[in-house]
């Protein structure tokens, strides 16, 4: 596994938690999943037990087991494994943080507690500080996702002075569409080597222009190759090509959003694209409808995102 001092950058796949038809975790396919990400999508960093991984629908024991399996199967294949350890219970979050350190994770991330909510930045930082202290050798990332947590504390405010209170703080997973907030996070922390990881896949190019250093998202499980092409075009300042790649990605995401797109649908799409069975989601989520699967499959085929043909070099005309 990579050195923990290495900056987390580029694409980070928010991993899905594969399940059997009976709703138990299907550990048997995770090794195959690792190989698929690395060899076919060109994605070598992962974010485990987050929203896409249904982390908060799993028991603490299950979350530990999932993290262990990804670490075991990803050893010598993945660059960085960041484990989400956020929970409503501080004690559970600390337990998961300690466990992540024990198994050799490259970092931990935490969302804001979302039932009894922190009401200002200082209260939230105090909670995060207690979790980070349980794994003092691990890089710590704040996972900002206000649409799901209901915690509207601006990330810009939270980052102001955060490293003085949480010395292991190394960056932010920003899963919100507020590019003003995101831009100010970057602008006000230019002297610090923070990782600014954007979490809204369909807006990544905009975030790159604002200074994002990487991205964490569910679509990088199956659109990693296409997104990497966008990153490469952006790096060489070929903004026209980068925009074409972003539009191509947006066409698919826009299409599935209109059908109803969430964790259940992500599992169905990943099963279609990779051939690895991801199974149903855990209740209260329900599996994707047959109608959704059929329509998504047709769209994936029309964009050359499905099957091994997607892995070959394609011109942009095929993405229409």
Task: Find the count of extended strands (DSSP E, 2+ residues).
Answer: 8
Shape: globular
Q: Show unreliable segments.
A: 308-318
Structural class by helix and strand composition? alpha/beta
Largest sheet: spatial strand order? 1-2-3-4-5-6-7-8
Beta-strand portion reads: 5-15%
What's the tally of helices? 13
N to C succession of SSEs: EHEHEHEHEHHHEHEHEHHHH
Name the average pLDDT: 92
The main pleated sheet reads as: 8 strands, parallel, barrel
Q: How much helix, percentage-wise, in residues? A: 40-55%
Radius of gyration: 19 Å
Word description of this protein:
It holds the Pfam family DHDPS. Belongs to the DapA family. NanA subfamily. Pathway: Amino-sugar metabolism; N-acetylneuraminate degradation. It catalyses: aceneuramate = aldehydo-N-acetyl-D-mannosamine + pyruvate. This protein has 320 residues and is of the alpha/beta class. The protein has helices spanning 30-41, 60-74, 90-102, 121-132, 146-149, 155-159, 162-165, 179-187, 204-210, 224-235, 239-259, 263-274, 290-302; strands at 10-14, 45-48, 80-84, 107-111, 140-144, 169-174, 195-198, 214-217. The chain has an eight-stranded parallel beta barrel, surrounded by six helices. The longest helix has 21 residues, at 239-259. Residues 308-318 have low confidence and may be disordered.
